[in-house]
Amino acid sequence: MAEWQNVIRKRDFPMIAQGSCEGNGMVYLDNAATTQCSRPVLWALEDYWQHQHANVHRGVYCLSSKATAAMEETRQLTAEFLGASPEEIVFTFGATDGLNLLANAFAAGELKPGDLVLSTEMEHNSNLLPWLEACRRSGARLELVAVTEAGNLDMEDLRRKLERKPRLLALTAVSNVLGTVNPLEEIIPLAHEAGTAVVVDAAQAMRCRETDVRALDCDFLVFSAHKLMGPTGVGVLCGKAEWLDRLGPGRFGGGMLRELNWPEAAYEAGGRKFEAGTPNLSGIAGLGAALEYLQAVGRKRIAAYEKELLHHAEKRLSAIGGVRILGAPEQRAGVLSFVMEPLQAYDVAMLLDKKGFALRSGRHCADALHARLGLSGSVRLSPAFYNTKGEIDALADALKEIGSVSRKAGIPVGEKTRG
Length: 419
What we know:
The protein is an alpha/beta fold. It has 15 helices and 17 strands.
């Protein structure tokens, strides 16, 4: 597998292949924030701007028709990638945008005073703040399902809260801090038995697991292209057809109107109803290329290799004095977060940057989870399939050196975390 991975890295990812940032060496390990674009995605973006740039669904002339056809081909490809139908695919400007669209639609027509909405303590702010605002606007209330000490979703707490028949459960498929893989196959049927709709934030999950929305039976699922070797500014909201027909649009404008009999307006059916205005057409082209690329490389192959990398990282980092890995979930994917007390996460990341390693520090837009853990921040390692075990080993050596230098300077790194 390592041989295959090295070929992929050198051939397909210019940013990774050049391995530099402002003239310095760089090992990129911040893939939970955004991934690097593959060469086929870059070609697709260039091809769009050179040969396809025109607005869609607006004109009968050749170039507009060509742009429309390309966009709808990507819709079909995305539907196949998810096991959905094209009518259930909404192009958004990212996972955050998709969640806001849903929250606005639920606040406008589905939530009533006294209704209960559930989310979890491990959510990204993008799957908390829209629902918090939707509840404020509608008079509903938002409650969070607890996370256990190990970092798993507290299933007993979830069952207790589902007994109160919430209108909606919005949860992540994979935690962007702990890497916890939530058991959606168990959770979704429990929610549906309670009459609860389920929104899945799959932004961190799409590379880690094959996702079939029909098999999962989730009501909605969102993800972003830039977590999948695609461009920023484009994402997908996939919703069951009956829900998309039922909900009102989350925003309004050109492209989503079927008929206007002033002052009454009738909107397009399916996903088109939610696509007001001009979409990110170049981004959609890049999304299509990214999905085709991942399919060609092999999603199971990618997931297996990234799992291998993460296991190696956990083994190496847990052996370093002073490094405390956050959580021990039953299943972990995608990310490994840690602290190196008493050093601040920001300082550790800065010191690693000086040594050529790109890792994220802070609360990773998961403020509720860091509050639950009693931390002001953490350092996050998130490898992708263009990384290597050798790079993980080099990172471990760099952390050992940071700990050693800090102790020599009188900073007691590791004294509180060994045991």
